[in-house]
């Protein structure tokens, strides 16, 4: 096999991708695959090659061209490579620092329990709709200082951007192109309002933000807001789906977690490794190079398969086993290098508190009889996750 796409994009691959990852690592850890338009896309699957690519953005660039989701400006700081990347991180990193996240924990814990209160007495819930979606959404809106009443619109824009409701690539591009200006117009209005009447939300600080001693331009503000919207409303939802879906199907491991709360942190890290909700990261190649014995060319696209890398036996002892007490878990679920996820501490806070409180309140649950659980490709979000207890 020299083309991993048949495995990666098989309709059922997102439901249980580990077997596909294993075959790709074994048979084509580096593949350069021709596209329909005469272009080439490189796929990297081994831990060694993936982490090298993530640490060398001068070769594997994240700048515009790597991905287009319909926005008019670069997503900041994701689509800005070093050295300019650093100036945006200096502005934003303090907003997502471990210290800042620790300050948020009491509010997050209260919110988690308020959501659980809404269904715990029923003995059932649709986990994706009733917990995994509203929890990070409410936290994101509070962090940004946006009204809860806007959530339905923002979620629709998120879905139109990440997973348009069509199998036609041209129609998907049209949907993304249509929603991008709506997001920009929304945040333009919100930023204008915060300049006139600031509050304690992150959006107010972006509205008066500076880099290199100068005010942010409007495009820089909108690019930052656009990225925060997509990341804040989607990836933690998908991660909660993946984690609780796994625990529902593995009651013995779930019981260990319930009986020993010190395993919560290890559970979160190991399920980030095993499930890898964002399994591939797009890049564009800026320089000719050789990686894994394969020549790659400037202008090639690239998919960095962090999901496959997270199962590499060369990096993880007994990589095929889920171990909540795994030591030195250097998984790549948050990426690596300069573009390592800005919100990783924020995500860990949400996931840790959610897993801890959900299992304190509802320790024994299962997937509803007859339900089929399927995950979307790209970002592995469940279409449904009905639980009963």
Q: Please, could you describe this protein's structure?
A:
The protein has one domain: Cytochrome p450 (Orthogonal Bundle). The chain is built from 15 helices and twelve strands. Helix 5 (about 100-115) packs parallel to helix 15, helix 9 crosses helix 11 and helix 11 (about 220-250) packs parallel to helix 15. The mean pLDDT is about 95. By secondary structure, it is of the alpha+beta class. The strands form four sheets. Strands 1-2-10-7-3 form a five-stranded mixed β-sheet, covered by helices on one side. A three-stranded antiparallel β-sheet has the order 4-12-11. It has helices at about 5-10, 20-25, 45-55, 85-90, 100-115, 125-130, 135-145, 150-160, 170-195, 200-205, 220-250, 250-260, 265-275, 305-310, 345-360; strands at about 30-35, 40-45, 60, 125, 210, 215, 280-285, 290, 295, 300-305, 365, 385-389.
- CATH architecture field: Orthogonal Bundle
Q: Per the principal axes of the C-alpha atoms, what is the gross shape? A: globular
Helix content: 40-55%
Range of strand content:
5-15%
Mean pLDDT: 94
Give a short summary of the structure.
With 389 residues, the chain is an alpha+beta fold.
Keywords:
single chain, 389 residues, alpha+beta, Cytochrome p450, five-stranded mixed β-sheet, three-stranded antiparallel β-sheet, 15 helices, 12 strands
Show the helix and strand layout.
Blueprint: H1 5-8, H2 18-27, E1 30-34, E2 40-44, H3 47-55, E3 60-61, H4 84-92, H5 98-117, E4 124-126, H6 127-132, H7 134-144, H8 151-162, H9 169-196, H10 202-207, E5 210-211, E6 214-215, H11 218-249, H12 251-259, H13 264-275, E7 281-285, E8 289-291, E9 294-296, E10 301-304, H14 306-309, H15 344-361, E11 366-367, E12 386-388
Parallel strand pairs: 2-10
Antiparallel strand pairs: 1-2, 3-7, 4-12, 5-6, 7-10, 8-9, 11-12
């Amino acid at each position: 096999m020299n083309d991993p796409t048949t495995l990666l994009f098989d309709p059922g691959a997102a439901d249980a991708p580990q077997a596909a990852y294993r075959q790709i690592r074994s048979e084509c850890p580096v593949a350069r695959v021709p596209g329909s338009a005469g272009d080439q896309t490189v796929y990297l699957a081994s831990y060694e090659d993936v982490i090298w690519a993530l640490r060398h953005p001068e070769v594997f660039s994240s700048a515009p061209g790597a991905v287009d989701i319909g926005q008019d400006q670069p997503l900041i700081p994701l689509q800005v490579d070093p050295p300019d990347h650093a100036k945006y991180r200096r502005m934003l990193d303090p907003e997502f620092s471990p210290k800042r996240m620790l300050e948020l924990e009491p509010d997050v814990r209260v919110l988690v329990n308020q959501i659980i209160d809404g269904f715990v007495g029923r003995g059932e819930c649709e986990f994706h709709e009733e917990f995994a979606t509203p929890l990070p959404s409410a936290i994101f809106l509070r962090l940004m200082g946006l009204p809860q009443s806007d959530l339905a619109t923002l979620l629709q824009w998120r879905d139109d951007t990440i997973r348009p409701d069509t199998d036609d690539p041209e129609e998907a591009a049209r949907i993304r192109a249509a929603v991008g200006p709506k997001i920009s117009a929304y945040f333009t209005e919100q930023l204008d309002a915060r300049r006139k009447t600031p509050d304690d939300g992150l959006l107010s600080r972006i509205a008066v933000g500076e880099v290199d001693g100068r005010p942010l331009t409007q495009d820089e503000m909108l690019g930052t807001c656009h990225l925060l919207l997509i990341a804040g409303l989607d990836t933690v939802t998908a991660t909660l789906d993946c984690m609780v879906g796994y625990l529902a199907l593995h009651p013995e491991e779930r019981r260990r977690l319930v009986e020993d709360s010190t395993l919560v942190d290890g559970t979160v890290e190991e399920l980030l490794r095993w499930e890898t909700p964002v399994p591939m990261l797009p890049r564009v190649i800026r320089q000719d190079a050789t990686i894994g014995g394969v020549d790659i060319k400037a202008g090639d696209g690239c998919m960095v398969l962090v999901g496959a890398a997270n199962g590499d036996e060369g990096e993880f002892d007994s990589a095929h086993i889920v171990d909540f007490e795994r030591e030195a878990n250097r998984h790549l679920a948050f990426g690596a290098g300069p573009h390592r996820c800005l919100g990783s501490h924020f995500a860990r806070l949400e996931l840790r508190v959610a897993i801890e409180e959900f299992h304190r309140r509802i320790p024994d649950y299962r997937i509803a009889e007859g339900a089929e659980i399927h995950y979307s490709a790209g970002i592995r979000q469940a279409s449904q996750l009905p639980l009963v207890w």
